[in-house]
Each structure stands twice: as structure tokens, then as C-alpha cells.
Amino acid sequence: MANTKLSPDFIFESSWEVCNKVGGIYTVLSTRAKTLQDAMPDNVVFIGPDFWQGKENPLFIEDKKMWKSWVTKARKEGLEVRVGRWNIPGQPCVVLVAFNKYFPMRDKLYANLWNYAKVDSMNGYGDYDEANMFSYAAGLVVESFYRHSLAKTCKNVVYQAHEWMTCLGAMYIQENVPEIATIFTTHATTIGRSIAGNNKPLYDYLWAYNGTQMSKELNVEAKHSLERETAHRVDCFTTVSEVTGSECEELMDKKCHAILPNGFEADFVPKAAEFKRKRKIAREKLLQVANCLTGCEFPEDTLIVGTSGRYEFRNKGIDVFIEAMNRLGRDKELNKPVLAMVEVPAWVGDPREDLVERIKSGEKFDTPLECPVITHWLHDMTHDNVTGMMKYNDMWNRPEDKVKLIFIPCYLDGKDGIINIPYYDAIIGKDLSVYPSYYEPWGYTPLESVAFHVPCVTTSLSGFGMWANSVKGDYSTIMDGVEVIRRTDYNYSEVADRIKETVSAFSNLTDKEVEEIRKKAKKLSDKALWKNFIKYYYEAYDIALKNRDIRVAQK
Q1: CATH tag, 266-528
Q2: Side-chain half-sphere of 284: how many Cα atoms within 13 Å?
Q3: What is the CB neighbour count within 10 angstroms for residue 242?
Q4: 225-236 burial, b if ≥16 CB within 10 A, otherwise e?
């Protein structure tokens, strides 16, 4: 019996990013959803925060006829829920829950959390309370739905919680609905991200750090405590890569039960003629914006290079990307003009009116705008890291500069006021992507890049980079579609030089060579499709259900 694999009859998944597009976890869930929905039609329910009460959420399709009996019961219980479908491929079932009403209960909830798991919430601040109130509400939703609709018909029910923001709900389920198997997935540990983000060496000293001690030093004690205790108590603790697995073992004193690498869904990538059409539109748009901003001419064969992701200046390698572009501008081997872009959401204000006017005119310009390096004004221009580093390096996009660097400090949602095309439609227009991360548990941006036929540069400290190397059996190079640069705690300058050299060499390749590299990039991404990676989730389900059985039997 022990060797018999257990599979779930029903799955709940909770995340801050369900119908709420703010980061990489959104991509994990939304691209995987169709694979699960195909395997278990309408027996997978995603639970997310309801921020759109009274407003239309374009990612959510409300269905007032769905689960009418349970919805009526839930509302009588005080749950403020809306049900429907997530507007993504597969259209899985969704419950959005409001949580503001639970804030007055905060102290009582934290006291219970201390009594149950010794989680110290005294030093919680910022988004700690908001996340926990949502997580508690999500736990109540799962309990209510299970009692009403599943308890008598489904034996193997799984609740998967993503990131520390859902930990309280996972422990609530563990305590109050023991029949449900629990999985907690950390996509990046709070303490690991904090160590790296505070310019401390993470990897050479990983073995020497005490996670709890460091959490106090870096003022993330509450989040770390919550995350650590959840990892120790759930039926199955998982993360997304071996590099983060090592981090969990050392900093949270807990070895992961399973590694769940992040996959992708081919449905998001346009085919054949549509792909060519979108690539043409994207390139024309990016080059037009660059001309309107800088007043410089950009020929059709301009090499368009970009980096994107969260605004974690060091962790995501934004600093080393800017330095690499600075050095590239002085490289005598560079054979093409380069348009480089930093696409990370900052504390953005409004789209620049002067730039909007130029774009609307449809004309070409030969004079720059004031501050010709940024597309949107920021609320705090003075203390911005990207523009500050560009100023320090004297990077002002002069006509004579071989490399022009532009900062696009907003989400590319198709409505930003300047680019006005979604991120996936914009990335198609690039020739090369660069993600020189120092701290990157997986790395969705490089996977997205190669899925859209765009070769990329990443590092050996990213989960994706490690995976690309494992596929090849050696360090992957740009000729394989992905250049994986060795990165350590201390080789910043070496990484910048390697990026510069890679981009410069790429500029000298023939069209035929580039096309072959693009094909290899796409071929590599096919190995990371969810149809190939979903098996790791079923291994986690099996572990969780078996540990659930052991836990229940011991009570």
C-alpha cells in the first residue's frame, strides 16, 4: 500500500496573486492552471484576495449561478466571497474573498498562532497584517467549502499555499480540518531574500548563518517565524529549485520534501504568422518610443536588449546589467546600435506628457526630450537606483552613444500610457534578454524569454540557469539559446564583462546564426512545458496525502 501513489480528488490553491497580476507567482499559477483543469475539470479551485469589490476585474469572470448552495451558506457564516472563473486558458474555478473585516480580530488570531506554533507576530509590520488576514479568510473558505461540498464524497483533498502570505491559512487548515492534506510552497525564502537584498554575501556563508538570528538583525522576524513554522508543520514542504532547497535547509532548518520547478504553457505564445506580426509591431513600437525620447535614429537592425522583473536592484542584477551596458558602449567589437531597456515597476507617477505628444504625432525626431532616459516620471526621481546609476555612469543617450539605455518603470499591462502593449507582446520584439540575477530561486523571466524565441543571458545562481545547465550537462552558452554565466558573491565585474562580451559577439552573428539560436531557445523552453513538469506536483500530492494519513492516524 505504501508504494501505491495517491492522487487528489480535489485541490485548493491559495495565493495573493490569484486574479491579481503582481509577480512571478501569477505566471506559475496561471500557466499551470490549464494542465490541472484538463486533468481534473472543475476540481481545482484557486482562492485569491478580492481587491475589486464594486469594480470590474478583467482577470475574473463572476458566475452567480456557480455553487449557489455553498455561497448562500458561506455568506450566512460571514464570508464575503465571489465565485467564478479566472480569465486565463482553462478558465479554472476561483473564489475571491474579502478580508478587511478580520483586522479587529488580529490580536486574537496572532495569540492563537503563538499558542499553536510559537509564531512571534509582535514584530510584524507593513504587509504582514494584510497578508495574514487574507490567509485566514482563505482558510475559512476552504473549511466551509469542504464541510459543505466535499467531506462526504472526496477522501483525498489537498490545500496548497504559496509563499509566506498564505501560511496562516495553511496552519489553520492543518489544525481545524485535519482531513485535508497541506502543502506549503516557498518561491523565495523571506530570510534568504533579505540577506541578499541587504548586500550581505549569501552563498559562501550560507552554512554559517542562523536564520532566526539573521531575521532579527534584518527586521523580518515575524515573516521568517511564520514561514519557518509552517514549513515544519505542513504535510509537504516544497520549493522551486535546488538552490532554494539548500537555502531552506540551512536557514529554516527544514529539508524540502519535493522540488517543484516552474513550467510554462505554450498557449501563451502566438504561432507562425501571428508571431511575426506581433514581433514587427513590438519592434516598431519600441524603436518609435526610443526615437521620440532620445531624438536619435534607430535603424531596423538595431539590437534590442532588455531586462525585466521585480525592482530588486541587486538581487535581480539590475545594477550589473546597467554596468554591462555602460561597458558595451565602449566595446570596439560591437557591430550594431543597441537599444537597451530596463523594464521594472518602480514608484511610478504619470506617463510623460511630452513623450505622449511626440508618440501621438507619428513623426520622427532629431532632438532629445529633457531627461531622455525614462518613459514615465517617478514620485521620487532623486533617490531612484536605476536613474542614479545611469547618472553616475554619465549615460544620457547622446547621439554618439552606441548603446542607448531606457528605463520603463511600470508594469507593461497594455495600458501604461507609453508602450501600451502587454509584456508578452512586447518581449517578442526583443533580440536578446539579460537576467544577471544574484538571488533568483527560479527565474520566470528567462523562461518566458526563451518561450517567446528570445535568447537570454542568466546566471548560475538562478534556478532556471541551473536547470538549463543540467539539460545540457555543462554550462549552457548563447549558441544553445541560453548563456549561463557563473556568478558568485564577489564576481560582479566579471559578470558585467561576460554580459558585454556576449552581447557584442551576438551583434556580429549572421541572420542565419541568430535564427538558429532562436530555434534552440524555443526548443529548450519546450522541455519546461507544464506537461513535462506537472509530474513533480503529483509527487508532492502523493507525499502530502500519505503524511496526512500518518498524521490523522496518530491523533
Answers
A1: 3.40.50.2000
A2: 8
A3: 16
A4: bbbbbbbebbbb
Which runs of E-coded beta strand occur in 445-515?
456-459, 482-485
The yes/no answer on whether domain 10-264+531-554 falls in CATH 2.60.120.10 is no
Q: Contact 231/248 with Cβ under 8 angstroms? A: yes
Q: What CA–CA distance (Å, rounded) separates 120 from 113? A: 8
All CATH 3.40.50.2000 domain ranges in the chain, comma separated: 10-264+531-554, 266-528
Take residue 319 and report the three cell numbers written for it: 545594477
C-alpha cell at 94: 476561483
The pLDDT of residue 22 is 81
Residues 6+ apart with CB under 8 A from 322: 342, 386, 389, 390, 393, 395, 405
The answer to whether the CB of 133 falls within 8 A of the CB of 100 is: yes
pTM of the predicted structure, to 2 decimals: 0.93
Q: Which residues pair with 339 in a beta bridge?
A: 304, 404
Enter the C-alpha cell of residue 289.
518610443
SS3 readout for 107-152: HHHHHHHHHHHCCCCCCCCCCHHHHHHHHHHHHHHHHHHHHHHHCC
Picking from 326, 301, 288, 218, the residue whose alpha carbon sits closest to that of residue 509 is: 301
With both helix axes pointing from N to C terminus, report the angle between 272-294 and 353-361 in degrees, rounded to the nearest 10: 120
Closest CA to 265 of 536, 466, 530: 530
**Whose grid coordinates read 496526512?**
548
More confident residue, 177 or 126: 177
How many Cβ atoms from other residues are within 10 Å of residue 61's Cβ? 13
Question: Cell numbers at residue 422, please?
Answer: 502587454
- Residue pLDDT, tens place only, 363-383: 999 999 999 999 999 999 999
Order of strands across the sheet that contains 456-459 = 403-408, 338-343, 303-308, 432-434, 456-459, 482-485
C-alpha cell at 220: 523580518
To which H or E segment does residue 445 belong? helix 444-451
**Cα angle 47, 309, 432; round to 5:** 130
